[in-house]
Design brief:
Helix content: under 10%
Number of strands: 11
Structural class: mainly beta
Oligomer: single chain
Distance between the termini: 34 Å
Length: 124
């Protein structure tokens, strides 16, 4: 399984970005896809996830109402639309796949099956 992210960059506070994650290769882990982020000096944290079967979504409280996760199953792609960006959103953003996708498990890092290489988001 390979995950390739794109769409990161530098924006001013209040701006928007859209991250993309293309997944290739079959895997039983590909039931849940989502995004984690890691800021310098901080632990990696879950941002959002989507259950591929139903489209149900999960968000960290810090991004609710500003970020939207969506999927394009025909193109094996998951997106993270980020609006009203804040300096505290600055981090490396990682795409992930996981077998586990409920309101608790989606953000458990040890349950993640595969990771992308990361894409940097900088908000100033």
């Amino acid at each position: 399984v390979q995950l390739v992210e794109s769409g990161g960059g530098s924006v001013q506070a209040g701006g928007s970005l859209r991250l993309s994650c293309v997944v290739s290769g079959y895997s039983s882990h590909s039931h849940c896809m989502g995004w984690f982020r890691q800021a310098p000096g901080k632990e990696r944290e879950g941002v959002a996830a989507i259950y591929l079967g139903t489209g149900h979504t999960y968000y960290d409280d810090s991004v609710k109402g500003r970020f939207t996760i969506s999927q394009d199953r025909a193109n094996n792609t998951v997106y993270l639309r980020m609006n009203s960006l804040k300096p505290e959103d600055t981090a490396m953003y990682y795409c992930m796949t996981s077998t586990y996708c409920n309101s608790v498990n989606w953000r458990v890092e040890s349950l993640v099956g595969y990771w992308g290489q990361g894409t940097q988001v900088t908000v100033s």
